[in-house]
Design a protein that fits this description.
By secondary structure, the protein is mainly alpha-helical. It has helices spanning 2-40, 44-57, 61-84, 88-98, 101-120, 124-137, 144-158, 161-174, 179-204, 208-219, 226-246, 250-263, 268-291, 295-303, 305-308, 313-344, 348-361, 365-382, 384-394, 399-415, 466-472, and strands at 420-421, 425-428, 434-442, 447-455, 460-463. Among the domains are: 312-381, no CATH class; 383-478, no CATH class. The chain is built from 21 helices and five strands. Helix 3 (61-84) runs antiparallel to helix 4 (88-98) and helix 16 runs antiparallel to helix 17.
């Protein structure tokens, strides 16, 4: 019995909750109906008040959406009335609250007219604020070309040249055929020298990439300075190529030269000359390596020419020649090493033979000198004294025996038969392959002792006194 009473109590409570909920929804719906009726009767102000009240408590999603749309239209209708009366400020506020596409179609008109009012009063900051509302939130506005035209003028007036150029950039990119784009160009032309000087300052400070970026951006838009921009860009890429050349970054050099030419076809001859000069420099560097027998390094250097001029024939010929020289040098080196071994063993004839074989394969100064020395040593070993006299007699086409003969003739002219001579005498001197050659002239009053030391290995002659040195120099004592 008690259980049944509790169950009845619960059922009563549930029924009361349901009745309350239904009554509540009915009451909410009545609030919407009131607002809707006011809206339909064009009582927009009161309708907005009731729509707000309804939306604060409504949990009916579909009905809430409908209420929001109708409230939005209330604001739009009120805004339209203000719009017709040209109350731009009030209309703008109401259209903003409407927050609808149809309201935005007129909201940009309001902002634009408000901006024009401020502009007429020279209130530039206020004007810019209204323009900013349009460009930021109403991007599809038909007023934007005229707005940008006006804003560029304002920016120029207040000295914000960069902002003016940014607006021109947007205007030209998005409205290239607009009369406002064409009409503003003379004003932009007036700014160009300033921007050019700024970019040239970057160039002077060697900020080439930044300078290229500035000129490239400037060159994109129609102006009377457009050709000048491309000329400057070409010059900058030439400077970038020059900088890359310092580090021998030939691929980067070529890239920058191509870019220079892309921007200024008038420098074709200059670029061609630069490329040829670079290739000549590369070839010279290769030849210097070849001269010190670094053939593999030379070939790698010479190949850099292909970056500048693909399949460059002079480089191809030089590489082939270098490969041939490398092979001949390696073969010559084997004969040279063999000759060095023979020389160490004092087998000068065999050394002479191998040095000649080496030299015939590949001419080097060091082997040429060795051939000369080996030839001397062979003669020195055979008959050192005879070879010493041969050196004396052949020195400067016989200047030594001629000088001695002239001196002797002069003494004989004074003393006749009283003059005696020792004849040519050769003596061993201290040092390997060193000999002393003498000739004495004897007279009643004065004697002349000529003496030279001869190095048979090198054929070097050293005077041992002043009169002997005079003979070497072509001076004769008469």
């Amino acid at each position: 019995m008690e259980l049944n009473n509790n169950m009845k109590l619960k059922i009563v409570l549930i029924i009361m909750i349901l009745i309350t909920a239904v009554s509540s929804y009915s009451w909410v719906d009545n609030k919407y109906d009131t607002a809707h009726q006011l809206y339909m009767k064009s009582n927009y102000v009161m309708a907005i008040k009731h729509f707000d009240s309804f939306l604060e408590t409504s949990q009916n999603g579909a009905l809430s959406t409908q209420a929001e749309l109708e409230r939005s239209d209330c604001y739009y209708q009120l805004g339209s009335k203000a719009y017709i009366k040209e109350n731009w400020l009030l209309a703008a506020r109401l259209f903003f609250l409407s927050n609808s596409e149809i309201a935005d179609l007129k909201l940009d008109d309001c902002y634009f007219m408000l901006a024009q009012q401020q502009l007429e009063q020279n209130a530039l900051n206020a004007t810019l604020k209204y323009y900013e509302k349009i460009t930021s939130y109403l991007k599809g506005s038909e007023h934007i070309p005229e707005l940008l035209f006006n804003r560029i003028k304002i920016y120029i007036e207040i000295g914000n040249n960069l902002a003016a150029f940014e607006d021109y950039h947007f205007l030209w990119m998005n409205y290239p055929e607009s009369n406002f784009t064409k009409d503003i160009q003379p004003s932009i032309d007036d700014l160009m020298p300033v921007f050019i000087n700024d970019a040239l300052a970057l160039k002077d400070s060697m900020e080439y990439d930044l300078a290229v970026g500035s000129f490239t951006k400037l060159s994109q838009y129609p102006s009377t300075f457009q050709h000048e921009m491309f000329v400057h860009i070409g010059e900058l890429y030439l400077l970038k190529a020059e900088a890359a050349l310092v580090n021998k970054e030939y691929a980067l050099v070529r890239e920058n030269l191509d870019l220079a030419l892309d921007n200024n076809k008038e420098i074709q001859i200059e670029v061609d000359n630069i490329i040829r000069d670079i290739c000549s420099s590369i070839i010279q560097e290769g030849n210097e390596l070849i001269s010190i027998f670094k053939f593999d390094e030379a070939i790698e250097v010479i190949k850099s020419c292909y970056i500048m001029i693909p399949e460059y024939e002079p480089c191809l010929d030089l590489i082939n020649d270098t490969e041939d020289k490398k092979q001949r040098y390696q073969a010559a080196l084997e004969h040279e090493n063999s000759a060095i071994n023979f020389e160490t063993e004092k087998n000068f004839s065999a050394a002479y033979s191998d040095y000649n074989k080496s030299y015939n394969l590949f001419n080097t100064n060091r082997v040429k000198e060795k051939i000369f020395i080996m030839g001397n040593l062979i003669q020195a070993e055979k008959d050192p004294k005879e070879f010493a006299m041969k050196i004396i007699n052949s020195y400067k086409n016989g200047i030594i025996p001629l000088g001695v003969s002239i001196a002797e003739s002069s003494v004989i002219a004074q003393y006749g038969d009283e003059v005696k001579n020792s004849g040519w005498k050769v003596y061993y001197a201290i040092g390997e392959y060193k000999y002393e050659v003498r000739f004495d002239i004897l007279s009643p009053d004065e004697n002349y002792y000529y003496s030279w030391r001869v190095n048979l290995k090198t054929r070097e002659i050293t005077s041992l006194n002043n009169i002997s040195e005079d003979v070497l120099k072509g001076k004769v004592h008469e």
